[in-house]
Amino acid sequence: MSPCLPIASAMIAVLLASPPPAPPTATWNDCGHRVIAAIAFEQMEPVARQAVVDLLREHPAARDAAFWRGHEGNGDDPDLNLFLNASVFPDDARRPGPFTRYDVGRAHYVNFRIMVGPDGRVREVLPPIQDPGDDDPHGDVLESLAANVALAGDRSAAPDDRALALSWIFHQVGDLHQPLHNVARFAPATPDGDRGGNDIRFGEYTLHGFWDWALGGDASAEAVDALAAALVAEHPRASFANRLAWKEPVEWSREGVRLALRYAYNNLDFTVGEFPEPPIGYEADATNVARSQCALAGYRLADLLSDLVAE
């Protein structure tokens, strides 16, 4: 990871002027993660996709008749179901149940620090810092994703460990494409940081939650498949040609910072921590960004998975 994002007002201007990509709660929600997985499933070549399916069958949750095989959101395609269920496993592990031992809270986010002055202007964007009392060996989402990619690609590792790492990869690629999983804003209203918008009330949600639900909430296989097809039609792979060349997750995270500055915190008074309703036009912008980001995440996930299982 580079030592820091661009800092100082001149570099903030560069961030905002560059062409925009059109502990936190779970990014997107089950719907968003499953849509990303469905896009990846359809984008992969059959041989590579089958290799991922074969590995996911070794996942502890795949062997639990009541957990993945009996999931209420399953559709008719058992292979697609594996992709969909793997994508939300890290969030499922946070809920009471048989897999809580796999919960790793910090591995869902990274907090690049948006520093706001008393005048409400963004002064600089600083690199994340680790809490001195935090001895979590998994690290933030960037550090953890790198470890999971290494483990999933290690053919000498135990198959169930590789499958667990693979489910985290599904999820973490999605996490990095939700803008508020990449930042914490330090401002007069939130001097200790807003935890990716979790400490800002935004209508009936937190700001973070508002973005989590930007794609809606129906996570059934039928609804997910339809939404995935719609997003691919709206945002075909060719429309992301330049950005798909960016292979490093830290580059994806920097995209998230730019999106947070341009959209997530747009027209929000930095001196207050509660907003009764979104500003005019905010919801439409958030929806457009979410749809674009989920499509892009699906393409990037397909590429990453294909590289992992390549002979």
UniProtKB/TrEMBL annotation:
Entry annotated with the keyword Oxidoreductase: no
InterPro entries (alphabetical): PLipase_C/P1_nuclease_dom_sf, S1/P1nuclease
GO function term, MF aspect, one: metal ion binding
Domain of life (superkingdom): Bacteria
Gene Ontology biological process: DNA catabolic process
Key words of the record: Disulfide bond, Endonuclease, Glycoprotein, Hydrolase, Metal-binding, Nuclease, Signal
Residues spanning the signal sequence: 1-22
Keyword Aminoacyl-tRNA synthetase set for record: no
Protein name in the entry: S1/P1 Nuclease
Source species of the chain: Tautonia plasticadhaerens
